[in-house]
Write a structure and sequence with these properties.
lyase (chains A, B); L-alanine-DL-glutamate epimerase (chains A, B); 9-stranded mixed sheet; 20 helices; magnesium ion binding (chains A, B); homodimer; disordered C terminus; magnesium (chains A, B); alpha/beta; L-fuconate dehydratase activity (chains A, B)
């Protein structure tokens, strides 16, 4: 019987800060990165790839946490691991010592998500299906068993979750057919990074419109004057009927958010995204009441299902932007999608970064097929960066994600990418001052890091 | 001029799981641990010690994060670092790449807190004062500058914070005198761990009463039948007038918490602690409405100031149990103490574990001296474990913390403790199966962990 025989973890970083890709009012120098894990088995053809997305420093801390989270998988029978994806998730999550470091948030939660993303990829590859299809072929009971419903019973019971899935089960095939023909609608953020010039902004907005996008998102929050000028350009290009979204990336306090957004209302934004702290449920509710009809969107930093439960209960959001890596993999995403369906909130997943588009296409497709059954008000983010590093990159045509057809979760990075961009030893980084400085730090400091503590204590003994 | 010349980080773990110390309904096998850092300077007599508390696995991940967080301090002038403790905090916190891993929660936040705890210890040692005195001697403007008020302006403005401090400034001396005579009141949890037998429970409760404690806390939530029996024993020993608190350590969903607590109401508990997810502000508010007059207490897993802001705004808690390590050091604790004062919520800090008692005594003493000015309904946790490992352990007499007199934050571990309990290389662990297995894993896996990713990528190149 095949078993999980090992795993390799990689700290992969891309120098995106050099071109201001991904620049916004909070994040000025993001180096898009992935803490990446490959689960290996005694069959070289059977493996699973998963990752969490970060923006640079600290990616190695996630990698270290992932090694610890994956350890209990070593030696396990693949049939058992893939046969109960809820059971596997619970067995990794239940470690009470690691739980203390969250619970269900921060580095440890990102690490659990990355490892379970690899398990879901493994399960889908073994089934010979893309992840969305693996899920679409699961009976409602198995989907609910996989969903992490802990701490949610005051908002969604297991019975309610089963009812939501049962309602759409008979017609899943129709929606698969529909998406196969039209794809899943997406919008682009590639145009609106804060670091881009007005000319580049205008050109990219026009390109987006020409490519069939009906939604464009701009970063705001650094300068009100600049925001007004840039929104004017975007609105001019996209026209009065186009959907214009704005994203503040958490730079405001609640009163400031209300004041600032009201001054941008003339451009008729569809939503204001991340107006304040992602943890502030009551703050988002207050902002939503104050700026309507402008919608409030948040979720890319939504730490776990309990936060989303409260956002729904408090009437704090119009759009749920869950993140495929911030949440603890498909297991927790399913719980949030099911709650969103009950509360009637459209799920418009966050994407971009490294590989998030590859993951969320599966999640949005399954959401429509089996949970929401509705595309109204739903549009999934797409950012045209770094897809060339993936073996099975997402495909976007006419402003829509094309249904993935290959087995797995589309999470596998190319071997050449690992060779070039592993930090700090990869070929690219070895040729940079930043990479060489980091190499010198790690080697020169003789075992700094995890091994350091014990080694030093021993030396002093 | 003296500079910060380096730092040593240690992964220190104690085998507390062997005796069921610290056992509760959520945490069955806690090995109390500290990810510990010592900041060194060019003057051997000038250093700072800080730590975060964990319960075992993952302590090394915190250690790795602390190394990254402390790195910007290297080479900095000590006068500048200690001269603006708010500025130093902001300079470490503002790293937007590390912020992505939270923000303000989980391992990265614990690491920021541990490093800043060491900075506060350094500042107090340099001033030749215990931390509480360093704070008590600071003008209101400096205290407010040190407090992290970001995202709080809808609940507490800088002006309101200054008013709270100004109100009590003229009478700080009187309260210092009062505490010097009577100490700061505390309660004990040592009696009530879930893993203890009824006989041990009865004996420890009696000892606590004999030692002058008027509050006793029991762990609940694993078995209703056991809880009823154990609460009966404790109530019998402490008598009808004694204060009995119960702690569920997050094991319940909201409806279950309400049902369970109502069945324990006959024992007249003062508060139910951590009835559900620490993130569930709305859930705590609902539980509080349902179980009153029993109070609701939470905070030891309160991830940051934004969570506490909402707990206060929603009327979700009767007692604020902030944690000296879960929050990002004194800087964030000050913000929560100031908010609690405005909302009239008593702060009863969480303690126990490793060294939390040593830290919180300073925080509670300063809270009374300068922020709350009131002892009504206030009692700080004390657990009589592991104090022997500290150079300057806290002293409890007649159910009260005795005012610390030595310079610093009482955070320094003994050299012998590092030699014995550094994991897995320390002398104690080297003599155990667990320690030897971990040593074999770390060495045998040849650089697993932070160094592994790059090394493997290089090998494949």
């Amino acid at each position: 019987m095949p078993h999980i025989t090992g795993y390799d973890v990689f700290d992969v970083r891309f120098p995106t800060s050099l071109t201001a890709d991904g620049s916004d009012a909070m994040n000025h120098d993001a180096d898009y990165s992935a803490a990446y894990i490959v689960l290996t088995t005694d069959d070289p053809a059977v493996y699973g790839c998963g990752f969490t997305f970060t923006i640079g420093r600290g990616n190695e801390v996630c990698a270290a946490a992932m090694e610890l989270r994956a350890r209990p998988l070593l030696g396990r029978d693949i049939d058992a691991v893939c046969g109960s994806l809820g059971g596997t998730y619970r067995s990794l999550k239940q470690d009470s010592q690691l739980r203390w470091l969250g619970p269900d948030k921060g580095v440890e939660h990102l690490a659990l998500g990355a490892v379970m993303n690899a398990v879901w990829d493994l399960a889908a590859r073994r089934a010979g299906k893309p992840l969305w299809r693996l899920l679409a072929d699961m009976p409602a009971e198995d989907i609910v068993d996989a969903a992490d419903l802990t701490y949610l019973s005051d908002a969604l019971t297991r019975e309610e979750a089963l009812e939501i899935l049962a309602r759409l089960a008979p017609t899943r095939g129709e929606r698969i057919q529909q998406l196969t023909e039209s794809g899943y609608p997406c919008y682009t953020t590639s145009a609106g990074w804060l670091g881009y010039s007005d000319e580049k902004l205008r050109r990219l907005c026009q390109e987006a419109v020409d490519q069939g996008y009906r939604h464009i998102k701009l970063k705001v929050g650094a300068s009100l004057e600049d925001d007004i000028r840039r929104l004017g350009i975007a609105r001019e290009v996209i026209g009065p009927q186009g959907n214009l979204m704005i994203d503040a990336n958490q730079v405001w306090d609640v009163p400031q958010a209300i004041d600032w957004v009201k001054q941008l209302a003339e451009f008729n934004p569809l939503w204001i995204e991340e107006p304040t702290s992602p943890d502030d449920v009551l703050g988002h509710a207050e902002i939503r009441r104050a700026v309507q009809p402008i919608g409030v969107a948040t979720g890319e930093h939504g730490m776990n299902r309990v936060l989303f439960k409260q956002l729904f209960q408090a009437g704090a959001v119009d759009y749920c932007q869950l993140d495929a890596c911030r949440l603890a993999s498909v297991n927790e995403v399913l719980a949030v999608q099911l709650m969103a369906a009950k509360f009637g909130i459209p799920v418009c997943p966050h994407a971009g970064g490294v590989g998030l588009c590859e993951l969320v296409q599966h999640l949005s497709i399954f959401d429509f097929i089996a949970i929401s059954g509705d595309l109204t008000g739903r549009v999934t983010e797409f950012v045209d960066h770094l897809h060339e590093h993936f073996v099975d990159p997402c495909i976007v045509r006419d402003g829509a994600y094309v249904m993935p057809a290959n087995p797995g979760y589309s999470a596998e990075l190319k071997a050449q990418t690992l060779q070039d961009y592993a930090f700090p030893w990869g070929d690219y980084w070895a040729g940079t001052d930043a990479g060489r400085a980091e190499q010198e730090w790690r080697t020169g400091s003789a075992g700094r890091g995890i091994a350091f503590a014990g080694a030093r204590a021993k030396a002093e003994a």
